[in-house]
Amino acid sequence: WFQLDSYLAEFGEDAVLVLLxxxxxxxxxxxxxxxFRFLGACPYDxxxxxxxxxxxxxxxxxxxxxxxxxxxxxxxxxxxDARRFSRYLQRDLSEVWPSLAAGATVASDx
Length: 110
Prior knowledge:
Helices cover about 45% and strands about 0% of the residues. By secondary structure, the protein is an all-alpha fold. It is flat. The protein starts with a helix and ends in a 9-residue tail after the last helix.
């Protein structure tokens, strides 16, 4: 959050578009059109096969760490950062990052 906070302070909210990789992977057409609108470009229908998968056989290693194994002070720092980010986006990020919801409700103000 603090990196985003710095950009917002420097450039203003109108000049910063926040995207989540998870959303881009889930619905690339919608997210790319959000980018086009933000840049002032015309929307474009990318669902007609213009997007091609790359590295489709490449597996991304998953972390062996469970949320319970992260020291409490680090987990609380991460969760507080996620709460602030969630409030900024006005979105419950536990739907995107379920592991963050294990320790607390990400969108809460507590």
